[in-house]
Design brief:
280 residues, alpha/beta, Rossmann fold, N-(1-d-carboxylethyl)-l-norvaline Dehydrogenase, domain 2, eight-stranded mixed β-sheet, 12 helices, 51% helix, globular
């Protein structure tokens, strides 16, 4: 069997790890450095990815393309690939709504590229059991085979394109939604001068909440800029289902206020986060 060639757009914190896993599984993995940062270059080199230089060269040489990018960029990335006439399998593994996922499939229809919808649950994987890649669509099984070995488990859902994104939205609506809610609650308590009393009461009646706030600080605040569009996609999904969407919209608004912490070298304190959330 010939070696499969897979293109990754783009090797950020998650994409570089995903590309490295596919490469370790035996595929040749490409990326395109044109217009990308030195940080992306360093990550791609560390993962052993091959630089094609340009998007057009990556599209020409790839049988499969994996899109792993911020949600707000997912549709534009798909359009760029379709504009190059790509006819291989296109996998969108971004945190987007089912509607957006299906619309990306439509973008690729003129080129004949089969579309696979993906959703990643968990952090960039370094050990088995932490992260799952959910897949849906006619070619989902073929893509799952790329992850047969390595720390990321690929799970094929019995459903059309959009199913994997729906699962991701439902999962993240809780994890990222409650993380934002807890940080906003602490901001309110600080504003009203009852934060110390609230934390003490949590320690007595809801003892897991203080640690969840700390977890939210570590895992969410410096990535808040990325979560804004994810929560907006979440809100659109709830609205499309005829459900209240205000939960996710509020989370998006909270993360937008925290976007100032992008690339912060240290995890900000609760007080710093509260100040950012309380700004008008």
């Amino acid at each position: 069997m010939s070696q499969m060639t897979v293109g990754v757009l783009h090797p950020g914190e998650m994409g570089s790890v995903v590309g490295g896993i596919v490469r370790a599984g035996g595929a040749r993995v490409l990326w395109a450095s044109e217009g990308r940062s030195q940080t992306s270059r360093s990550r791609a080199e560390a993962a052993g990815l091959t630089d094609t230089g340009s998007l057009s060269a990556l599209v020409r040489d790839s049988e499969v393309i994996l899109s792993v990018c911020p949600p707000h960029a997912a549709t534009d990335v798909a359009r760029q690939v379709a504009g190059q006439g790509f006819s291989g399998v296109y996998v969108d593994a971004n945190a987007i709504s089912p509607t957006t996922a299906r619309s990306i499939g439509v973008v690729l229809e003129p080129t004949g590229a089969p579309f696979v919808d993906g959703g990643i649950v968990g952090p960039p994987p370094s050990s088995p059991g932490t992260t799952r890649l959910y897949l849906s669509g006619s070619e989902a099984g073929r893509i799952a085979a790329l992850f047969a070995t390595g720390p990321m488990e690929a799970i094929v859902l019995d459903g059309p394109a959009g199913a994997a994104s729906a699962l991701k939205v439902a999962y993240a609506a809780y994890t990222k939604g409650t993380a934002a809610l807890l940080l906003v609650i602490r901001a309110l308590a600080m504003k009203e001068g009852v934060d110390e009393a609230l934390v003490k009461e949590w320690g007595r009646s809801l003892p897991d909440l203080p640690s969840r706030v700390e977890s939210g600080l570590r895992g969410s605040v410096r990535k808040a800029w990325r979560f804004v569009s994810e929560m907006e996609e979440s809100a659109a999904t709830f609205a499309a289902a005829g459900l209240p969407d205000g939960f996710s919209r509020a989370a998006a608004a909270a993360y937008d206020r925290l976007a100032t912490f992008k690339n912060a070298k240290q995890t900000p304190s609760v007080a710093d986060v509260s100040t950012a959330l309380l700004r008008r």
